[in-house]
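Protocol step 4 of 6: structure prediction from sequence.
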Amino acid sequence: MIRIHLDEVTLARTRIAISQLLEMIRGLEILHRHPVAVPWPYTDWARTAAEVLRTVPEAAELRLYGDLYGTDHGRPTPDVFTPVPEEAFPDLAAELGRLRHTPPARVREQVAKHYPEGAPGFLRPYVQDPQAAFDRLAEAFAVFWDRTMAPYWPAMRTALDEEVLLRARRLAAEGADALLLDLHGPQIWQAPVLNFPKHNKESSLIAVDQRLLLVPLMFAENTTMVSTDHPRIQSISYQARGAARLAGSGTPRSQEEPDRLAVLVGPARATLLRALTRPTTTTGLADELGLAPSTVSEHLAGLLTAGVVHRRRSGRSVLYELEPSGVALLSLLTAPGEAR
């Protein structure tokens, strides 16, 4: 169990950020964790990403993360290789710029902390010549982004913006305590301690006069990652809602397997129901599905009348989400492997 004791100042400084760099790092972790078959909704992305890592020389430096994770996925990973965003919405160039200029003293300090027996061979270039090593790493991430992540980013950004809106409203209206209780993941909030179940690991730290940073990720695979090496920030990344967007319209069906949900409610309304994997706006649905907002509004009105969807106001936005009856309908009439 990892226990983080948060003082009132740190809790009061809770902030939310997104990170394109951390999305890639967690994507690499998914590839490493599932070398044979990557689960839905990452399957299509993983096929392309694995091919890029295998065939594109400029991306080869990213194999470092497989070495960091190790065969048992139990190796320590210095936070210099999973840097936390220092702004709410940094662009990729800014994140890669900070990665390139990782302070050599911080590298030596973290490697010594996590590898007291000495740096393993794959990390020695980062200790001996960090400038050159992190330059190569940043270039590899830039290539990997263009080849694997950029096509998905518009849909990801829409989902992440809505996730941040929801969490920020909760934080402003009810405080950090309510926000931490509502996060998706295995963590347990027992004020003032945030507990993270960790197999065969016991550690405890006290965060005093720092900042708690929450980073929602599409590629978190329903897990939570904690970064505690930063001198001023305690960072927690967690699974954001809307990862189903990474799978496009879902797993293809065979001709022998009809879309029972579409037969019952119509193709357009079936698509809307499947897209409501997390609260979203009319505009968000229209952008994701390539439909006119008026068309989306018309179908949502029918789903509201049927009682399978409800709406609520969050600030200036109106959010739509599934009723329990809508969840049950999807569960009963959606083929295995598709969005639930």
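Step 5 (inspection) to follow. The chain has two domains: 2-239, 249-333.
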